[in-house]
Design a protein that fits this description.
Structural class: alpha/beta
CATH topology of the largest domain: Rossmann fold
Radius of gyration: 20 Å
Number of domains: 2
Distance between the termini: 48 Å
Largest sheet: 6 strands, parallel
CATH class of the largest domain: Alpha Beta
Helix content: 25-40%
Shape: globular
CATH architecture of the largest domain: 3-Layer(aba) Sandwich
Strand content: 15-25%
Number of strands: 13
Length: 298
């Protein structure tokens, strides 16, 4: 029997990829979208076979109607508290009214369950929704993919191709960072959405790579030896981020405020995935660090 998977956030970068992977695997994909959604984005989803349901996202009854016959809701929404907490609560309420048995929340990030509350604003929002959904009867699976490796392309302190430098904090030169590409995350998520026995938490990573290993692979690809910088101690980094946040109250309303970027990097250097579920499903291929770096390091 064909499974119906509902995707919230299907017009986004990750949500679109998840929808495509589900279609490939033979699922019927239904996307709930706002009335204000870009028609071009909706048409691109229709073109690959996604059923579009336009609804008022503030109406849980309307969401429940959209969830009729659905076996799993996949949330790939992105935003601050009004989205990660409030909107997801509305989607969850609709799913519960419709009797949907399973829910995959928008937890596509580092495994925040291992982090101290207060160290990462965006993770704290996900933690708050987790606390709420775990009081309900629905079966939940969170997929923790670490960080999307796109940040390696944008001259961040971890890897700056323009300045030919690699940075790390504390004594973490050999600390392995978790990265999963959007394509790999989408393919894995599709498998989980179709797996009625999926557990509560799943950690994945396309590749785990330390700053020292980045140095080696960049040298292999470019023939150049980048400068490796110890940027500061982790304690000093945490203090700097806290000061930066205090001095930028407007950033509280920005998804990727400067202090939040620092919080993401701090989290990457203070926790890592140690129980990878990469081998849970057959037929998946995982992007290697060397293959990914070769896209932009010459």
């Amino acid at each position: 029997m064909e499974k119906i998977i509902l995707v919230a956030g299907a017009t986004g970068n990750l949500g679109n990829r998840i929808s495509r992977e589900l279609i490939k695997k033979g699922a019927h994909v239904r996307a709930i979208v706002r009335t204000s959604t870009d028609s071009v984005k909706m048409e691109s989803l229709k073109a690959i076979g996604v059923e579009i349901v336009i609804i008022d996202m503030s109406d849980s009854d309307a969401i429940a109607n959209g969830c009729e016959g659905v076996t799993c809701v996949v949330s790939a929404v992105a935003g601050l508290g009004d989205v990660i907490i409030d909107l997801q609560k509305q989607i969850l309420a609709g799913a519960l009214k419709a009797g949907v048995p399973r829910f995959i929340p928008s937890d596509f990030c580092t495994d925040y369950t291992q982090l101290i509350p207060g160290e990462n604003r965006n993770f704290d929002l996900r933690r708050a929704f987790r606390k709420h959904i775990d009081t309900t009867s629905i079966q939940v699976t969170s997929i923790f993919n670490g960080c999307f490796p796109d940040i390696l392309m944008y001259n961040t302190p971890i890897l700056n191709v323009k300045e030919k430098s690699i940075g790390y904090w504390g004594d973490k030169l050999n600390w392995k960072l978790d990265f999963t590409t959007m394509d790999d995350t989408a393919a894995f998520t599709a498998e989980v959405a179709l797996d009625d026995a999926a557990p509560r938490n799943l950690q994945i990573a396309s590749f785990q790579i330390s700053p020292a290993k980045i140095f080696e692979e960049v040298k292999e690809l470019s023939g150049e030896e980048y400068k490796i910088n110890q940027l500061s101690s982790l304690d000093n980094f945490a203090a700097y981020i806290k000061k930066q946040r205090t001095e930028d109250p407007a950033g509280e309303n920005e998804l990727y405020a400067k202090f939040q970027q620092g919080q993401y990097m701090y989290s990457m250097f203070t926790t890592q995935h140690t129980d990878l579920a990469n081998n849970c499903y057959q037929g998946l291929s995982w992007t290697s660090s060397l293959a990914y770096l070769s896209r932009f390091v010459k």
